[in-house]
Amino acid sequence: MTSESSCRICGEAVAEFLDFGIQPLSDAFREPSDPAEEFTYRLAVGRCAGCGMVQLVNEVPREAMFHDDYPYVSRGSAVMREHFGALARRFLETELAGEDPFIVELGSNDGTMLATVAAAGVRHLGVEPSGDVADLSAAEGVRVRKDFFEESTALQIAESDGLADVIYAANTLCHIPYMDSILAGVRALLKPHGVFVFEDPYLGDIVERTSFDQIYDEHFFLFSARSVDEMARRHGLELVDVEHLEVHGGELRYTLALPGARRRSEAVGRWLSTEDSARLGEQDVLEEFAARVHAVRDDLVSLLSRLRDEGSRVVGYGATAKSATVTNFCGIGPELVEFVCDTTPAKQGRLTPGSHIPVRPPEAFRGGDGGAGGNGYPPYALLFAWNHAEEIMAKEQAFREAGGRWILYVPTVRVV
């Protein structure tokens, strides 16, 4: 332990267990000619002694992370499109099957989930503070409010639209430090028998897989079933169901309701028991995780340095937000990774945050006119988007056929 801060759930002391050093904003991809100084902060993570919530020690202002130039869109992955489509259909068959149902999504992004709901003619509202991606959802026929969700927002929505049968959030709730206002808003907006469903990266998977790049500025909380159960209780809600998801490297989907409104599923008890048996979230377990993270860093830097010294080219694949943690914690720059290819137009032609590695379109990976000089595939590709490994490797079979090899670092550094 090197420092303490106050928990954003219960106010008790947060004991730090892992320090990634000074980091940039994970999605602040820069124009090469931009002379402005980058926003930086210290990325460190700790555990609350009171409620057990794992969280960042330092908070980044929300306006710095989520704005009109926010580059992430859900529809970029076929896996995620199917994931959200399946969930929307489940909602339509269950929670939204009654008379005049209403669903609100927090952090609705480009409307991938709500588009299915809108097509079914069900009342809905997306709440999305990042203007450009909100406009994408509006273009798909999704009703969206450009705003941050908090208690005052919820009260306004309740007054204009009525109470919600479902409030949903995907990879959003963990972004928000001011949880007291969020959950007060949920209570104000939810129907008496409604549900609040959210899914976020799971602490258990992060610890088990040493997927340390899930820790970055936007992921303020690292939830577990035990910490969410405690958080819900402290804020007038009840955890009534838990479901494990394989997307994004391992997540849990939590269902909360007003106390006594829903019967608690057996899954909740199973998950709580499993976490207690594994001692998930206890300080010594988290410190062991931190030691493995440092070992992965050393192994990855050693491998990339050796390949550079041997004259082998290495490029990155996937200019993900979480790759900022990897490149800046490990000190990986253009001297070790020539460029990173990415399908997102808003990132192409820019530099990765902090590490300033050029981001190029997919054509560059294949040696086309995207900047690789027409030399064909590189011999090695560092897969930053490892959580989409199966989808990416299936798409890039020609890379393997040309003799290319993938470098992975979760759970350990290896070449495949």
From TrEMBL:
C-methyltransferase domain mapped to chain residues: 247-411
Full protein name: Methylation protein EvaC
InterPro entries: Methyltransf_Zn-bd_dom_put, Methyltransf_Zn-bd_dom_put_sf, MeTrfase_14, SAM-dependent_MTases_sf
Source organism per UniProt: Prauserella rugosa
Transmembrane segments: none
Pfam families given in the database record: Methyltransf_13, Methyltransf_14, Methyltransf_23
Top-rank taxon: Bacteria
Sequence ranges assigned to domain Methyltransferase putative zinc binding in this UniProt record: 7-66
